[in-house]
Batch of 4 targets.
Target 1
Amino acid sequence: MLHITDSQVSELLDFRGVTEVLAEAFQDLAHDKAAVHGRQRTDCAGMKLSTMGGIWAARNVAGVKVYPTVTGQFSFAMILFDLSTNTPVAVLDGNELTRFRTASITRMVASRAAAPSPRKLALFGAGLQGRSQAHALCEVFRFDEICVVDPKAEGAWCDRLQSLSGARVRLTTAEKAVRDADVVITATRSSEPVFDGEWLAPGAFVAAIGTSTPKGRELDDTTMSRAARIVVEWKQQSLVEAGEIVLWNQRHLTEKYVDLPELFGGQQPWRLEQPGITVFKSVGVGLADVATAQLVLSRVRGGWLLAADEVTA
Ligand SMILES: NC(=O)c1ccc[n+]([C@@H]2O[C@H](COP(=O)([O-])OP(=O)(O)OC[C@H]3O[C@@H](n4cnc5c(N)ncnc54)[C@H](O)[C@@H]3O)[C@@H](O)[C@H]2O)c1
């Protein structure tokens, strides 16, 4: 079995490639050629063990990602099976894989569901995930302005983002960031709402990716109530895991929810005729990990790695 390290995963992946493979996997999920293995969590003495995965029958692969959570920090690993031979084929370190697939799923949804040509991005949380969210989006959107809200954001990273994106990047307050923003990303570890939904522009696209437990939320009730629609990855998991939904006082407004199988299956349009606020709430689903791991493996087999980085068995 191959062991593919985080640094090899990072060398092999790009946001565009991952976004494309995710779209193919969710398209197959919509047509019963893939299935999600929902997250299982086990708690003991303040630590957690979680598993999530999926079967991508159309590509003959299945896999599971497993990760402990200790003092709030994750450590991801993934095992991938070839279903044509029914054998395990690779173990992948899962930290880079998770970073790429989380940013790419936001990009996949934003490029289909957000109003075209957004000019202003508000980013809450410039940690590992938040920085990747910004980089993935700046490859598809030409922002004029990026407002970063994070007391710990690094000025050097803001400067780098400014030169990469061509946008004016500045650190600012929550309200200044959200007012007039076309796209708002929350990628913090906060369990309390990070802005007031009254500040949102009428056609804003909001992606909340930062918490996946029912006890915490980055978005307030106002944001959820003002949203014309709430996009989730996969209802079966998202509606019970997302604190934004579980803690929302109007969570029973079921007509607002739409998930990726419904969108890729054509049962629902990506954009509404009467545009309003769109919320994308991401908790992370295992099929995205399987699809991303499959892309890594196919690139290893296709000789994409530098010779010095050969994968060991
Ligand atoms: N949706 C998914 O699939 C998925 C996948 C991986 C991680 N996550 C989640 O993403 C979150 C961020 O992960 P990370 O690895 O980037 O964490 P990180 O610790 O590297 O970064 C979090 C950043 O948020 C900032 N922050 C905290 N509270 C804030 C607030 N109220 N306003 C603005 N900024 C604030 C912190 O200063 C920090 O820089 C975690 O909660 C993690 O569970 C989600």
Note: The longest helix spans residues 95-113.
Target 2
Amino acid sequence: MNVNRYARQVLFSSIQEKGQEMLAGSTVLVVGAGALGTVICNHLVRSGIGKIRLIDRDYVELSNLQRQMLFDEEDVRQALPKSVAAKQKLEKINSSITIEAIVGNATYENIKELTDGVDVVMDGTDNFSTRYLLNDICYKKGIPFSYGGVVSSRGMTAFFIPKETPCLRCIVKEGADHGQTCDTVGVISPAVDVVSSLQVTETMKYLTGNQQYLRYTLLTFDVWFNQQYDMKFKQPNPQCPACQREEFPALQAKAADQETILCGRNTVQIHEKTAIDLQQWESRLTKVATVQRTPFLLKAVVDSIDFVLFPDGRVLVQGTEDPIVARTMYDRYIGS
Ligand SMILES: [Zn+2]
């Protein structure tokens, strides 16, 4: 281990060489490589974490650069998937870290495998259905879950530990954001940084054997209108279907919604194919659309709609948030 690189961190009395070695031996799953996820990975990689598994379903666009700290204009030009662009940047920052980049969705079908060998799961998502999925797998497998959410100038974060603390379902109800999303009320990047930095801080405490310093609260704040509130964890909800009744509803197979509206993106994702051959679809769509193929995706522009096809079978329909419009366009140009 190159101690010089981490000299300032090793000097910190709660970490020292022992803590540094514990970090180097740790694996973290980061779900989402957007605003929160990029800041989280940046800190983790600089701190000398052993391994990061990073999953994201989206690709880099110009409007991301305002707050997604690992990306630049070249990533936008190349339309790189976010997890791939993030990995490239992170490896330049610290080449000794193992980074596994996955382009895709975290779902009830793959979440068990995604969390294998993981010491902490970190939330870089923008929606409660994925957060509840992460919460449920963490409580099922006994993995700590570092939750964070941000919208406008407000942030919210907590570090949940199975069998020690209540879970996300006990503390934060779905819809706690009152339907406000980055799409409707925007977001400023300092608020993102604060939330994700706090997520990483708690994770570092946990991974370096400093559990006695964990905050054990749900912290909410507004960096613009100057409010802050620390709510001590209460008792778990005795009816909680995750941490108490151990039913883990998000892990149950269900007729999963094939259409998902992506936050802040004027985009609907349709996932009903199991795979897409980009080359084949390029030649098919060239006749009706303006197409651009990269090693990771195929973009096709028809009328005012952009289709983005991924090899894992997902199609983003951009230019609408109406699932019916998206489905109509999908059926017309992609079909089953
Ligand atoms: Zn619970």
Note: The longest strand covers residues 145-151.
Target 3
Amino acid sequence: MFRGLCLLFAGFCVSIVSPATASAPIPNPPPGFVDEAFASWLTGFRQEALAAGISGPVFDRAMRGVRPDPKVVDANNNQPEFVRPVWDYLASAISDTRVANGQEKLRTYPTLLGRLEERYGVDKEILVAIWGLETGYGAFMGNHRVTQALSTLAYDGRRTKFGREQLLAALKILQRGDITPEAMTGSWAGAMGHTQFIPTTYNAHAVDFNGDGKRDIWNTIGDALGSAGNYLAQSGFQTGDTWGGEVKLPRNFDYALADARVEKTMGEWAALGITGAQGGALRRDDLKARLILPAGHKGPAFLVRNNFRTILRYNNSTSYALAVNLLADRFRGKGEIVGSWPTDDRPLGRTERQELQRLLTSKGYDTGGVDGIIGGNSRKALRNWQLAQGLPADGYPTAALLARLRR
Ligand SMILES: [Ca+2]
């Protein structure tokens, strides 16, 4: 069919092979050309897969009919200018419906969840929270054929390395026979099953909890939640410990202490005047915690411990780790957080973050580049500028700070 298209566009076919234009980039070749280039790529990748131990028949069955998926291409190209504010994200992540549905799962599967908790040492509320956030308890697992989605990423775009690595891992799963190529479905980025494992995570951590010989995270809840529990256990989850919680900071607190590199024991934090969110004493022990201010000094503050960090291994996003833990706390009957979010301080868009970095750098506060990503260097630069201005040094970029930098 695509060759036919090429014939229809015969004039174009000729023009792109003519010497005058052969070296010019072709930003949007017609589908026929994509298909041929893809077929050629696939031939090369087959050699790579066979060299990595995938059998020819397994490869050929897995890749039968696979071609670049425009929906995956679109999703891969989509780099939104604005990020969702953390309070909006948390409001939908911890909606009343999700809380109620999770509580219902806890009531429906007490035996299974108890056995999972026993085996992996991870609280059942945490496992159910992950389940709820990843797929709405199995309601939205993604219906992309994983080999096609990953082939699309591996072939072209900004995630080719990720796509190749994950596609190879997916083929290994198929070769072992845990699932068929047709039933191996997932998100556009290859996250699979109830707990949305990407193939490399699956190969490293998935388990056959019900003992039927297959690690089936698509159809067996025990396998899916057991895999999540195993992953967290292997990431250093401390059985019986808490993730941390919301706290209250004293007046004139040194906000520079809210830094990923600053760790103190709960006793040390308490000595600085930090209390529980309601003003009660902190639980004092020798375990280290760090302080996070997800929306800067005007928003809620949290002390987070080791188990918070293990959730970041699952998905390296502070908002996500907060959502999992706060949702689990709601299952346990805890109320909503006490602090209020500074909803008038909208987060900066990517272009604004780049401008902020440029302005800070031009004023002598090195952000280590202008990439629009507020990482450790940018935060440090922003803090140092805030200190010099006599402002709370929370390193949290806002539109008001950007306006002040522009002056
Ligand atoms: Ca199984």
Note: The beta strands are 144-145, 185-186, 244-248, 264-265, 275-276, 288-292, 301-304.
Target 4
Amino acid sequence: MTDLPVNDALEESAELSQVRAEATALRAELDETNQGVLALYAELDTQAEELRQASDLKSRFLSYMSHEFRTPLGSILSIASLLTDELDGPLSPEQHKQVAFVSTAARELSDMVDDLLDLAKIEAGRISISPAWFDMFDLFSALRGMFRPIVDTTAVDLILEEPVGLPKLYTDDKKLAQILRNFISNSLKFTQRGEVRVSARLENEREVRFAVSDTGIGIPAELHAALFEDFVQVDSPLQKRLRGTGLGLSLCKRFAELLGGRVGLESEPGVGSTFYVVIPIAFAQEHVDES
Ligand SMILES: Nc1ncnc2c1ncn2[C@@H]1O[C@H](COP(=O)(O)OP(=O)(O)OP(=O)(O)O)[C@@H](O)[C@H]1O
Ligand SMILES: [Mg+2]
């Protein structure tokens, strides 16, 4: 019995070395896991960098391409207008028609290039907001003037409700006008009879809501969510006869976000659609920095 302590000590040291061995194995395992995690992080970093470069490249490609398209398009437009003005001799009625086709196509292409350039600038973070105080009456009368030539030739009424009792806005009126112009031109495109109505009202004490409602073909509910993405168009017999790229609404959404606001729609097929934009009455720089 006297050797008991020795036994105890032996047992204890066996246990200890087992624990130690286990700890070493555990540490080795942890080291391995750590290295695995580090490797994964490095891979993620590389992928994020690659994605960033791809996105940069896309934005740069879009802006170079759009920029390079403008010069030849400008030449086509001015030569077409020289021909129409018959500065180099008279045109036959058929030739007048053909030159008109050339101008219309060139103008459409030029609009598309402008949209692409805007999108590229937004993606590259190079679009600047220039806020200023302005009156909604002025904005509405500018819109009325802009659409008068189109409305005069259609069966659809364009009604711009007087924006009474609304405060002055401090925001980028050009961007806001571009959003409303896109909404109105869509509504006029997709409405064959009835009216397109533009209104403005206070959403709350900080924000104002602009809405463009039409009595047009409407949009099925399952497509509402995707509609503000690039190149999304709804398949319909009317669509096939109309031109457009599917970039208008995507630009509206991005411009609204740049102004610190949001866009949305309510629409029912066969009844009509309402597209709206809600923006702060006074633009604050941090809205942009947050995003
Ligand atoms: N008021 C509306 N009524 C019915 N459909 C609409 C209306 N506004 C938009 N849409 C649908 O949403 C699609 C996308 O609109 P968006 O303005 O982005 O593109 P687009 O008008 O086809 O082309 P773009 O504006 O680039 O010239 C339209 O093609 C149409 O299918
Ligand atoms: Mg459009």
Note: The first helix runs from residue 4 to 84.
